[in-house]
TrEMBL record:
One Pfam family cited in the UniProt record for this chain: Aminotran_5
Protein function: Catalyzes the removal of elemental sulfur and selenium atoms from L-cysteine, L-cystine, L-selenocysteine, and L-selenocystine to produce L-alanine.
E.C. number(s) listed in UniProt: 2.8.1.7
Protein name listed in UniProt: Cysteine desulfurase
Organism annotation: Ligilactobacillus pobuzihii
Family as reported in the entry's similarity comment: Belongs to the class-V pyridoxal-phosphate-dependent aminotransferase family. Csd subfamily.
Span of the signal peptide: none
Keywords carried by this UniProt record: Pyridoxal phosphate, Transferase
Single Gene Ontology MF annotation: pyridoxal phosphate binding
InterPro entries from the UniProt entry: Aminotrans_V_dom, Aminotrans_V_PyrdxlP_BS, Cys_dSase_SufS, Cysteine_dSase, PyrdxlP-dep_Trfase, PyrdxlP-dep_Trfase_major, PyrdxlP-dep_Trfase_small
Lineage: Bacteria, Bacillati, Bacillota, Bacilli, Lactobacillales
Amino acid sequence: MNNLLNDFPILQEIVNDEKLVYLDNAATTQKPRQVLDAIRNYYEHDNANVHRGVHTLAQRATEQFEGVRQKVADFIGANNPQEVVYTKGTTEALNWIAASYGRTHLHAGDEIVVSYMEHHSNLVPWQQLALQTGAKLKYIGLTVDGQLDLKNAQQVITDKTAIVSLCHASNVLGVINPIKQVTRLAHQHGAIMVVDGAQAVPHMPVDVKELDVDFYAFSGHKMLGPTGCGILWGKKELLNEMPPLEFGGEMISNVGLYQTDFKAPPYKFEGGTQNIAGVIGLGAAIDYLNEIGLDKIMKHERRLVEYVLPQLTAIQGIEIYGPKDPRQRTGVLSFNLTGVHPHDLASALDMDGVAVRAGHHCAQPLMKYLGVSATARASFYLYNTQTDADLLIRAVLDAKEFFLNGSF
Ligand code: PMP
């Protein structure tokens, strides 16, 4: 991963007199010049609304906007760009599945299955759906090292299960879940499989056809793209039968005084003017990732975790959550230092220019399950280096010295 740093202007920032070490990639990633240029280029040269216009700019904008749909489809191994729905992000995509598919398919007595490691975005929509339909929400447990307990999954998923929804990779534990196996199990029981791919698509090759899942959601901003743009992918036959949720311009084929016909998917879900610049930025982000290759990105992150995990583990008082084996995880490392609140730890790291996150990471049930109120979280991405890992370790050691021994 040589020379990537030149592509990311923000990584030259000085923070508290230190060079920025950005390790908050699970929250959002930095944007390369190529993405910034694509957005700027659109606004400077092609800015127009899509679909409706016959003028040249409208055609150029539409070509780019629709071209990204094909790019996304290819990126995740989808059959057809018409299965790719633009959303604001993972949260909106998951909400739409729950509100549109869920409300029209679930009944009292049906069961929805999630796990204890879900982000609130893949939990609260299902809680709401359960409240609205009388369905029951059930949880798959975790093993002691924070993996999905597959034996427990076999008990929890039954013929009553209508929907199983899991994260592909956890934003706290870093663990990669065996989606293919769980999907097979869900399908054996006649349930559909929904996947929150927010922490997977940016970091490893994902093929929705190979996984055989029914819906897959992810966010552009976690994969070098801009905020406010994400993807809901769904099997065509499921999207076809789902009602739209937002009504207005763009999503209609014919409007009468009292009745309206809607377009086919994906357009029937995309009411109003879309985040055109965001979509174009996402397309540039996909080009950038493809140029390097997701296999290479995954290996790079794994090498960093293999390097940093034993060093972090060796610091007395540090507890790390999630699998011990780097091959089972992404570049997300959550940890606590005994006797130091994670917010204080993160503030101390920030003084060294090291940006990590602290808190419940939108996963309060998981915090409860782990018996903690919060953790610190360092999360690596393609532009991070071994030096960043060294600086993280040094900053943690400095913080430990400061808080526990009262000196630098
Ligand atoms: N799921 C997971 C696993 C996440 O990490 C996140 C973002 N932290 C989300 C869902 C929500 O993504 P967004 O805020 O982009 O909608």
